Amino acid sequence: MKKLGILALALFVHTTFAQVNRFVYQVTMKPDASNKNDVKTENAYLDISPEKSVFYSENRIKRDSVMKATFQSGGARSFNREQMEGLRSKINYSIEKDKKSQKMTFKDRIGRDVYTYEEDRPLNWKILSETTKIGDYKVQKAEADFGGRKWTAWFTTDLPYQDGPYKFGGLPGLIVKAEDDKADYSFDLMKNYKINDFPEMNQFGNTIKVKRGDYVKQQKKFLDDPMSFMTQGGGQIRIGGGDGGPRGGGGGNPGDFRKRMEERVKDEAKKNSNPIELQ
Q1: Which ranges in the chain belong to alpha helices (H)?
Q2: CB atoms within 10 A of CB 221
Q3: Is the pLDDT score of 188 beyond 80?
Q4: Is the distance from CB of 32 to CB of 272 less than 8 angstroms?
Q5: Which range in 11-25, 185-199, 247-261 is most confidently predicted, on average pLDDT?
Q6: What pLDDT digit, counting tens, does each position of 197-227 carry?
Q7: CA distance linking residue 114 with residue 205, whole number of Å
Q8: Is the Cβ–Cβ distance between 76 and 70 less than 8 Å?
Q9: Residue partners of 202: CB distance under 8 A and separation at least 6
Q10: Looking at the predicted structure, is the pLDDT value of residue 78 above 50?
């Protein structure tokens, strides 16, 4: 009986400490370089466990949930296009940080496949003496140059995680706010709570592991010739749609469909001409 009590206690302790801490950030973006008045805002999650952390869009999980329910109820033909469009995200990537190896893995969809690379640039923070208060947290200022932008971060030692949104981390506490000097991108911590485990994310297409430089080249190639990334054997067209799943061309003239898709991708490229990383 005593052994059973000890076992139950051990399981309780394991369950308690196995939980994942979820930090919800409001991400504010000005993705269109020609129209800085076009401000986009959405939420993103930073889920942290003792082993790793994952940063991704809240809409990604919502879309995955809708798609899973759709496939279970009737397949791709029963997609609610309007609902899916309402869950489109400007944060089509995910970033995983491995605590043990200190490796950071970036994943993003280009066309119908997912490209992944290991971040090869260090983040060299300069910690300043300036402090203030953001919400309930006493925070301290730090600065760094990364991806062609000058970033200011405010971190708190009240939350003992050397982590933060996007690729940011490595400070003595959790990053509560990060913003670039042009105010094009900002990440603001809104709330946090515990979840049982990391959510399972849907994966469509192949996963292609590349170097960061090759990923940048593929991005450029995609903008120049998007349809070359969306065809496969037999001429079938599959559209990744950023963070969405496969979408077929449906009926109609294939040539007209290709033209519409090319126009759509180029239009989206124009609206995303001010990326978070400039180099």
Answers
A1: 2-17, 58-73, 81-86, 212-224, 254-271
A2: 14
A3: yes
A4: yes
A5: 185-199
A6: 999 887 778 999 999 999 999 988 887 777 7
A7: 7
A8: yes
A9: 64, 67, 68, 245
A10: yes
Q: Which tokens sit at 236?
A: 């079938």
Q: Quote the Cα angle for 255-258-264, to 5°.
A: 145
**Torsion sign across C-alpha atoms 150, 93, 244, 250:** positive
234 φ, ψ to 5°? 85, 5
Distance CA 68, CA 80 (A): 12
Cα 23 to Cα 216: distance, rounded to the nearest angstrom: 29
Tokens of residue 155, six digits: 């971190």
Query: pLDDT tens digits for 98-129?
Result: 999 999 999 998 888 999 999 999 999 999 99
CB count in 10 Å sphere of residue 46 = 27
How is 100-137 classified by DSSP, letter by letter?
TT--EEEEEEETTEEEEEE-------EEEEEEEEETTE
Contact 4, 25 (CB under 8 A): no
Report the share of the chain in percent with pLDDT over 70. Answer: 76
Q: What is the mean pLDDT of the chain?
A: 83
CA separation for the pair 224, 60 (Å, rounded): 26
Query: What single-letter amino acid sits at 95?
Result: I
Looking at mean pLDDT, say which of 10-14, 17-21, 75-79, 204-208 comes out highest.
204-208
Do 212 and 119 meet the contact criterion of CB atoms below 8 Å apart?
yes
